[in-house]
């Protein structure tokens, strides 16, 4: 386990430890997160997480979905975090990579739903391993461009 992952966080008004396993899926499960699109998505997610006061402990970007293990703050609700992550990433990726619109229609990058579950100290390592082992080794080399 990472040493900081289960530490308590202290603010003037609260003491907390909030970890979530988040999954967001592309509309129609279209595989658009490859090559430079995947790289930009990772950079965007790290930047946005920082803006929400979150730390990404683990991340795996598959061609059609994203797994995140985040250490969050109680200041923002999960629904507002997900709305921010999905909205900004969709806008930026469509602007910088208009070719992904060929695989999607209706102007939506993400499914309207998402998965969020709290992570306990007992389940954290299992979730870390699950996220780390999402992608077979061969697939990581093969998906360098949008097909």
Q: Summed up, what is this model?
A:
The protein has 147 residues and is α+β, with helices and mostly antiparallel strands. The protein has four helices and six strands; from the N terminus they run βββαββαβαα. Residues 15-134 form the Transposase IS200-like domain.
How would you characterize the overall build of this protein?
This protein is of the alpha+beta class. The chain has one domain: Alpha-Beta Plaits. About 35% of the residues lie in helices and about 20% in strands. It contains 4 helices and 6 strands. It has helices at about 35-50, 80-95, 125-130, 135-140; strands at about 10, 15, 20-25, 55-60, 65-70, 115-120. α1 (about 35-50) runs antiparallel to α2 (about 80-95). The protein is globular and about 45 Å long.
Number of helices: 4
- Poorly predicted runs of 5 or more residues: 1-5
Strand content: 15-25%
Largest sheet: 4 strands, antiparallel
- Going by CATH, the architecture would be 2-Layer Sandwich
Which structural class best describes the helix and strand composition? alpha+beta
- Mean pLDDT score: 88
From the structure above, extract its key features.
147 residues, alpha+beta, 6 strands, 21% strand, Transposase_17, Transposase_17_sf, Transposase family protein A, DNA binding
How are the elements arranged and paired?
Layout: E1 9-10, E2 15-16, E3 18-25, H1 35-51, E4 55-61, E5 65-72, H2 78-96, E6 115-118, H3 124-132, H4 137-142
Antiparallel strand pairs: 1-2, 3-5, 3-6, 4-5
């Amino acid at each position: 386990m990472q040493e900081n992952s289960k530490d308590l966080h202290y603010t003037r008004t609260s003491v907390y430890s909030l970890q979530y396993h988040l999954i967001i899926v592309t509309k129609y499960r279209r595989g658009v997160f490859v090559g430079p699109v995947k790289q930009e998505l990772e950079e965007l997610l790290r930047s946005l997480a920082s803006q929400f006061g979150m730390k990404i402990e683990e991340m795996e970007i598959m061609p059609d979905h994203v797994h995140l293990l985040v250490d969050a703050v109680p200041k923002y609700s999960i629904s507002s975090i997900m709305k921010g992550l999905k909205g900004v990433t969709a806008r930026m990726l469509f602007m910088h990579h208009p070719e992904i619109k060929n695989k999607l229609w209706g102007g939506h990058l993400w499914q309207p739903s998402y998965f969020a579950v709290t992570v306990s100290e007992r389940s954290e390592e299992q979730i870390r391993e699950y996220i780390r082992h999402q992608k077979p080794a061969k697939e990581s080399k093969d998906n360098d461009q949008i097909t």
